[in-house]
Amino acid sequence: MNRIINVGKKLIMKGNFEMGLFGKMFDALSGESERFPNVDWYCDRCNAYLNEQSEFDDHKYTWECTDCGHKNSISATNVYESEEDFRTK
């Protein structure tokens, strides 16, 4: 299981990212309900927790926050292996 850390307005995923990404793509193809299981998503503007918003779907590539209306990118580019990786990019 991966540990997710919210750092400011981005997301850090601790664990084996390469294998995790392959597993997530396989899960999506096999009909699993989440494209990014065990990943917590937060709004880039207001930091609201997106996963629990009504009808949130991480298969969509953007999600409009129901709290502030900001359109957030939901993609692998927003998931980081470590805090250091997040800080250097």
Tags for this model:
three-stranded mixed β-sheet, two-stranded antiparallel sheet, 2 helices
3D architecture notes:
The chain is 21% helix and 20% strand. By secondary structure, it is of the alpha+beta class. It has one domain (3-88). The strands form two sheets. Strands 1-2-5 form a three-stranded mixed beta sheet. The protein has a two-stranded antiparallel ribbon with strand order 3-4. The longest helix is centred in the N-terminal third of the chain and has 13 residues, at 17-29. The two termini are 24 Å apart.
- Following the backbone from N to C, one meets helices and strands in this order, namely EEHEEEH
Would you count the extended β strands for me? 5
* Quaternary state of the chains: single chain
The profile of the biggest β sheet is: 3 strands, mixed
**Secondary structural class:** alpha+beta
Tally of contiguous helical segments = 2
How much of the sequence lies in strands comes to: 15-25%
- Rg, rounded, reads 13 Å
* Largest sheet, spatial ordering of strands: 1-2-5
pLDDT average, as an integer?
74
Shape: globular
Quickly count the domains. 1
The residue fraction in helices comes out at: 10-25%
Q: Note the gap between the termini.
A: 24 Å
Would you identify the regions where 5 or more consecutive residues have pLDDT less than 50? Answer: 14-20
